[in-house]
Design brief:
By secondary structure, the chain is α+β, with helices and mostly antiparallel strands. The chain is built from ten helices and 30 strands.
């Protein structure tokens, strides 16, 4: 017994020395990593003049410059208030969103009054490690938590908030419940920010993308990463390649659709076989041989080497021969989709005599629940499924009458739900602004609204002379704060003249 006590007594100094040595070697995570307590609030998609109740989320961040904190863009979506947490304490004040890049899913916060004492910028690694054990770090339970995260692979995937695709780091982590923008370190350098976690496997934005964003413009919102945007399929069917005139084993990928405004628009055509980008050969499954990442998705070429506005050399097989072409690198933001997948601003709407009019997007489709792809009306979901990226200069959005607020003025139309407007007072409708303009020019004594052919009726006809009074009565009856909310900024300009599908 005495021997055991002696051994224990002798072991204590050794343990203390080992702990001190480990502490001395541990990077100063407490000086780099911060927590973010975020209050966020979205709009009611069915009644877009109302807000839903506020919710909260906790996210991670990392100091990357004087008075600057880096986090993911998705964590700040619809944020109304942000608190900074350092050394286990919430700091008063509201960090300001300085810059957002949705193509990279990154954002910078500027801290009012400067950073709290003890914080300093974390160095960003020049390259993301392709193997080894990293550390995922966060504030939790009033203290810092650092968990081992082992690199599984790097895999090209789409950004959570944009259409750019770049290599994400896949990790096997000991951190539970992560994926909320926790910084990832390799010894003393930042190598990633997490964007998701499923079980013990997490996914992170790599150091190369972080560096590109941090070194970008001083402020504002811009998409820094180009996206090909084209729909494509693997090129493994020899019968197809022979039909298209390609000789030998299949090479390259088969282009199926080229959306307006995307990088390929105006140059690539359906049934092209894309063989090379920037001199890199693309195989029949869409991979190329990267200098240090190995065989990886070809989208990495665009995100790693180019920015919007650059020219990109490419080689395609078309009409039985190979051609060298030049693509214009474009960011292809979500707003260039006919039916956008995300909503970054309050949804625009208009109420005319009780007709609730808005544009179709995925947040609205999600009001049908978790299985919205099954439960949403077929007439709406089919448009999303077949033509979500079918925006054109003459058709920017699908515009709906989502509901009719009952009143004497709209008797006969109260049953209408989610019908698509094609023309308003003889004018084609391609966005909500077209409806607002058409209301200023009635068709004689009436407003005539032509609906899509799958609707319950062909037309809605309203008395033009009493519309304004009817709208005012509906606003008073239903407590509407306004009869409209229009877009705060115009839709982005697309680019290129895309070839129609064959």
């Amino acid at each position: 017994m005495r021997g055991s006590s002696l051994i224990a007594a002798l072991a204590l100094p050794a343990l203390a020395w080992g702990a001190a040595r480990a502490e001395a070697e541990r990077p100063p995570y407490e000086g780099w990593v911060v927590g973010l307590n975020i209050t966020w609030q979205t709009w009611d998609e069915d009644q877009p003049w109302l807000k839903r109740k506020p919710e909260t989320r906790r996210a991670g961040g990392v100091v990357v410059g004087e008075n600057l904190v880096l986090t993911t863009a998705e964590m700040l979506e619809h944020a109304t208030f942000v608190q900074l947490e350092t050394h286990g304490r919430s700091r008063p004040g509201k960090p300001q969103i300085k810059r957002v890049d949705r193509s990279a899913n990154l954002a910078l916060l500027s801290i009012e009054g400067g950073l709290p004492a003890g914080l300093a910028p974390a160095p960003v690694a020049p390259r993301t490690p392709t193997s080894g054990t990293l550390r995922t770090v966060r504030w939790r339970g009033q203290q810092i938590e650092a968990a081992a995260s082992r690199v599984i692979r790097l895999e090209v995937e789409r950004s959570e908030t944009g259409n750019a695709q770049y290599a994400h780091v896949r990790l096997r982590t000991d951190l539970s419940g992560g994926g909320w923008s926790e910084p990832v370190f390799d010894r003393g350098a930042l190598v990633g920010l997490t964007v998701s976690q499923d079980g013990d496997e997490s996914r992170a934005i790599p150091a190369e993308i972080l560096s590109l964003f941090v070194q970008g413009p001083a402020e504002g919102a811009a998409d820094s990463l180009p996206a090909l945007g084209a729909h494509w399929q693997v090129n493994k069917e020899e019968a197809v390649t022979k039909y298209l005139g390609q000789e030998g084993a299949p090479r390259g990928i088969l282009i199926r659709q080229v959306p307006w405004g995307s990088t390929g628009c105006g140059v690539l055509q359906p049934r092209d076989i894309l063989l090379e980008l920037d001199g890199e050969a693309i195989d029949a499954e869409g991979f190329f041989l990267h200098p240090w990442l190995g065989r990886i998705g070809f989208h990495q070429i665009l995100s790693e080497r180019f920015k919007p506005g650059d020219e990109v050399r490419a080689r395609v097989h078309r009409g039985g021969r190979e051609l060298d072409v030049v693509l214009a690198a474009r960011a292809y933001p979500d707003d260039l989709k006919l039916i956008p997948g995300r909503q970054h601003e309050p949804p625009p709407f208009l109420v005319a005599g009780g007709l609730v009019i808005r544009e179709l997007d995925v947040p609205y489709l999600r009001t049908w629940g978790k299985e919205w792809n099954l439960d949403a009306p077929d007439r709406l979901y089919s448009r999303y499924y077949f033509d979500s990226e079918g925006q054109r200069p003459v058709l920017r959005r699908v515009v709906l009458v989502t509901a009719v607020l009952p009143s004497v003025y709209t008797i006969g139309y109260h049953h209408l739900r989610d019908v698509v407007i094609e023309r308003f007072n003889g004018r084609p409708v391609s966005r909500l602004e077209d409806v607002a303009e058409a209301l200023e020019s009635p068709a004689g004594a009436f407003h005539v609204i032509d609906l899509a052919r799958e609707s319950a009726m062909d037309q809605i006809v309203l008395d033009a002379g009493t519309l304004k009074a009817a709208t005012g009565a509906v606003m008073e009856e239903y407590g509407l704060p306004s009869d409209r909310r229009m877009r705060s900024s115009p839709l982005p300009a697309g680019g290129g003249e895309c070839q129609p599908e064959p």
